[in-house]
Specification:
Bound molecules: zinc ion
Strand order of the largest sheet: 1-2
Distance between the termini: 21 Å
Structural class: mainly alpha
Shape: elongated
Number of domains: 1
Number of strands: 2
Length: 142
């Protein structure tokens, strides 16, 4: 039985990494929202609302910048904290960054609409803990 614990610095890194993922999701949803808004205005023939369009464009650019920044900060952080037991990078998204054949540990819970990885990102922010996707070891971050 191991007694895994992360250093204060590693905990902060996990928080920062998971937060940038969630920030990225927010930015992505914002982009979708703005795109729908502009599309809706266009369809309803109110494209003369130049001021609304100007604001929408700025919002879209802002969201794109946010998505970019959060993506970069995630990429700079994800590999830094490794599982004490199996060495898997705790923030690594196996869907995007591999290994694609990773079999998620059965003890990793999933929620509707989230991958096992996405669920852990939410858990970090919501419950201050993270579970290794590979071996299922749980780390408390509080
Ligand atoms: Zn592990």
């Amino acid at each position: 039985m191991t007694d895994p614990h992360l250093t204060k610095k590693e905990k902060n890194t996990v928080f920062a990494g998971a937060s940038s993922v969630i920030l990225g999701w927010t930015a992505f949803s914002l982009q979708g929202f703005v795109a729908l808004l502009v599309l809706g205005l266009g369809i309803s023939g109110q494209s003369s609302h130049v001021r609304v369009q100007g604001a929408a464009v700025r919002l879209f650019i802002g969201a794109t910048a946010l998505l970019f920044v959060s993506g970069i900060s995630y990429l700079l952080l994800f590999y830094r904290v490794k599982c004490r037991r199996c060495g898997f990078a705790l923030l690594r998204n196996p869907k995007g960054l591999g290994p694609t054949d990773l079999v998620t540990n059965p003890s990793s819970p999933k929620a509707r609409g989230f991958s096992a990885w996405g669920y852990q990102m939410v858990e970090v922010v919501r419950r201050h803990k993270i579970r290794c996707l590979k071996c299922g070891e749980e780390y408390k971050l509080a």
